[in-house]
């Protein structure tokens, strides 16, 4: 493979931003790609894919490049890590000064050594590997391995504006092939990646990008047109928009969050999607109390570790800290206990996470039910990167007696 120096520089810059400036990978890549309008689609793919893959395999790559410092600060070391990554991809390195310190044979020998130890081979911090094994036992290894693969691009058809087969045909007309997914009603998956955000179809609000597992959550809430629904951790509205389409834009959805900028983004997305039944509400001291027993349906898509969506956010495994995980579990317990009071008697709620850990999911629901006998467990469901190729979501359907 022939490398263009300016593209490798862009990857090195992105990695420095992610690891040294503690910035989010997707935001950094977006900024880097915007910085040079002359880059074509191949150049952009080179930058994005190499950056994501190096972040994903960071621990393994440090090991094979024989870099032992905990925090990589020097720019020269980022170049060496890039070089080690490309050696593992089977490339012959160009004769650049920045790559001189990397011995391809040594990289390959050290990679063989790395295969003996799961946490290095699968490139994961010690503490996550320990917790994963404690909580998932023999299933952990397969999930960990599956979370190191690139997630497919999945679309959710906006059925307020089109239908799945028409959308498929419209994509085909612009040279983008899509496939349907057997058990996910409105989903289309792209066998070959493409920038769907730049299409007119996106600008017109005909679809949203949303993992297949995530698309099962709004459906699980069993909403109907005309209901009063609260989406209490709505964020930028991935699931709010889906709820609104399932409700055929009728009834009312109150979308809440503690972050105003996310709700503003939700409003922009709702407008693009042609949705008119959503009202946003920033959570303040009395917001929850005021909604006591007002909801027919309640979605609690709680904040979590994100240990089910590492395929899409590989930087999360390096940024996540053990004490954050403990704190977020406390927040989850508070949310389900306090927010569930917004549900009417006879109403239903879904508690959901994007974590593969039972301690954030099944166990939280069990504890809640043990302490709240006026709620009935109906059912629960999990998606799994290893078993069905979806991101790792959990959802439980609970009814208020
Ligand atoms: C998993 S994300 C939600 C994703 C969103 N539902 C979607 O589908 O795009 C969890 C959200 O909970 C919000 N959050 C954090 N603490 C909260 C709290 N105490 N009450 C309500 N929302 C909270 C976060 O800001 C974040 O947007």
Automatic annotation (TrEMBL):
<dbReference type="InterPro" id="IPR001678">
    <property type="entry name" value="MeTrfase_RsmB-F_NOP2_dom"/>
</dbReference>
<feature type="binding site">
    <location>
        <position position="301"/>
    </location>
    <ligand>
        <name>S-adenosyl-L-methionine</name>
    </ligand>
</feature>
<keyword id="KW-0949">S-adenosyl-L-methionine</keyword>
<feature type="domain" description="SAM-dependent MTase RsmB/NOP-type">
    <location>
        <begin position="143"/>
        <end position="401"/>
    </location>
</feature>
<feature type="active site" description="Nucleophile">
    <location>
        <position position="354"/>
    </location>
</feature>
<protein>
    <submittedName>
        <fullName>Fmu (Sun) domain protein</fullName>
    </submittedName>
</protein>
<dbReference type="Pfam" id="PF22458">
    <property type="entry name" value="RsmF-B_ferredox"/>
</dbReference>
<dbReference type="InterPro" id="IPR054728">
    <property type="entry name" value="RsmB-like_ferredoxin"/>
</dbReference>
<dbReference type="InterPro" id="IPR023267">
    <property type="entry name" value="RCMT"/>
</dbReference>
<keyword id="KW-0489">Methyltransferase</keyword>
<dbReference type="InterPro" id="IPR029063">
    <property type="entry name" value="SAM-dependent_MTases_sf"/>
</dbReference>
<dbReference type="InterPro" id="IPR049560">
    <property type="entry name" value="MeTrfase_RsmB-F_NOP2_cat"/>
</dbReference>
<comment type="similarity">
    <text>Belongs to the class I-like SAM-binding methyltransferase superfamily. RsmB/NOP family.</text>
</comment>
<dbReference type="Pfam" id="PF01189">
    <property type="entry name" value="Methyltr_RsmB-F"/>
</dbReference>
<keyword id="KW-0808">Transferase</keyword>
<feature type="binding site">
    <location>
        <position position="257"/>
    </location>
    <ligand>
        <name>S-adenosyl-L-methionine</name>
    </ligand>
</feature>
<keyword id="KW-0694">RNA-binding</keyword>
């Amino acid at each position: 493979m022939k490398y263009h120096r300016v593209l490798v520089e862009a990857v090195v810059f992105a990695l420095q931003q992610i690891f040294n400036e503690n910035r989010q990978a997707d935001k950094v890549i977006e900024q880097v790609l915007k910085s040079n309008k002359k880059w074509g689609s191949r150049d952009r793919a080179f930058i994005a894919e190499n950056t994501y893959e190096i972040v994903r395999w960071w621990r393994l790559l440090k090991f094979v490049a024989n870099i032992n410092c905990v925090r990589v600060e020097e720019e020269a070391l980022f170049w060496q890590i890039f070089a080690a990554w490309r050696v593992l991809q089977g490339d012959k390195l160009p004769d650049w000064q920045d790559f001189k310190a990397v011995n391809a044979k040594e990289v390959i020998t050290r990679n063989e050594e790395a295969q003996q130890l799961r946490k290095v081979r699968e490139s994961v911090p010690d503490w996550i590997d320990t917790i994963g094994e404690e909580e998932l036992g023999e299933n952990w290894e397969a999930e960990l391995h599956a979370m190191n693969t690139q997630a497919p691009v999945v679309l959710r058809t906006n059925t307020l504006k089109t239908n799945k087969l028409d959308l498929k045909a419209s994509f085909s007309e612009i040279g983008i092939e899509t496939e349907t997914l057997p058990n996910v009603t409105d989903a289309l998956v792209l066998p070959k990646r493409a920038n769907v955000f730049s299409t007119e179809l996106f600008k017109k609000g005909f679809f949203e990008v949303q993992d297949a597992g995530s698309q099962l959550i709004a459906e699980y809430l069993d909403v109907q047109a005309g209901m009063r629904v609260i989406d209490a951790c709505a964020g930028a509205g991935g699931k709010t928009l889906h709820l609104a389409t399932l409700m055929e834009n009728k009834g009312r959805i109150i979308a809440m969050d503690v972050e105003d900028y996310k709700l503003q983004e939700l409003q922009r997305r709702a407008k693009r999607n042609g949705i008119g039944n959503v009202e946003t509400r920033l959570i303040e001291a009395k917001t929850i109390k005021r909604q006591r027993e007002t909801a027919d349906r309640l979605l609690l898509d709680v904040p979590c570790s994100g240990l089910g969506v590492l395929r899409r956010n590989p930087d999360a495994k390096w940024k996540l800290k053990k004490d954050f995980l403990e704190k977020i579990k406390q927040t989850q317990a508070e949310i389900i206990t306090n927010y569930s009071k917004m549900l009417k008697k006879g109403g239903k709620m879904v508690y959901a996470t994007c974590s593969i850990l039972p301690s954030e999911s099944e166990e939280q629901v069990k504890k809640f039910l043990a302490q709240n006998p006026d709620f009935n467990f109906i059912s629960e469901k999990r998606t799994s990167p290893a078993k069905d190729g979806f991101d790792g979501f959990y959802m439980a359907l609970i009814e208020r007696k």
